[in-house]
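In the current project phase, we have settled on a layout for protein records. A sample record is reproduced below.
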Amino acid sequence: MKDQPRLGKYEPLFQHLSALDVPRWRVTFLDIEHILGFRLPKSARTHRPWWANQTDRGHGQARVWQAAGWRTSMVDMKTETLVFERVERNALTSGSSRPPSLEKSRRHGHAAEHAQPDAEAAPIPNAARTMTLEGQVFQRSARITPEAGPDGRPMEYMPQSRYVRAPSTPLNRHGAGPFCRFAVPRLPAAPGVYAITVAEKLVYVGIATNLRRRWGPSGYAQIQPKNCFKGGQSTNCKVNHAILAATQGRLAIDLWIHRTGHPRPLEERLIDVLAPPWNDQR
């Protein structure tokens, strides 16, 4: 057997790919940065050949994903997305070989928690791709998986001290925390209604003028310090904290979306009829 290639700083990506048990994985550049723990070089966003399956010309990153048994395809520089496809060993680029299987250690689990494969890339076992709420079809968008520490438990964050007005501003009723961080890739930048299920049970319904922003780092995915205090977005704190609590209970949390230019009437009807427990504005 050939020697294991040097993985260098891209080893976390190797660990993550090695732990996946799906034939295809659609991912964003940002997801990969979350796995690696550092920003990709500028050429990854400006030079498409950076993602090529070539191991010459100093493409050390290609050696890493090929060593894990994958190749890249469907690279879209505009949307910063690509697809990793699993390949047979004899189909790998000449000169690369996959090292022996590594133990499924806590380190594997840590790397795997940083990015969330989409519903197509990582099918949710025994789960439908759509659900119908009051006659409206919702698409399953993602399984929400907060960042985890080396022990596999969700990491907790307390951002309140970073708010410059913290000494003179009271916390809002949901601002005490703790909170978690997660990523939801490839949501449309469009208005719509979203629903959260925990263990396949509806727990929350909300609306957004921009679904991508609502579930991005300035919304639910990462609590900004000012939103913990009076005048901030207390709903962000409430939902994020509830997601953390459900994760600590090892419950599956899924996000569903229904795109519509007029989301308010549907949201009000769903809350009134279905009474999701996380909605307290009724």
Observations:
- Residues 8-113 form one domain.
- The chain has two domains: 8-113, 130-274.
- Confidence is low (pLDDT under 50) at residues 89-127.
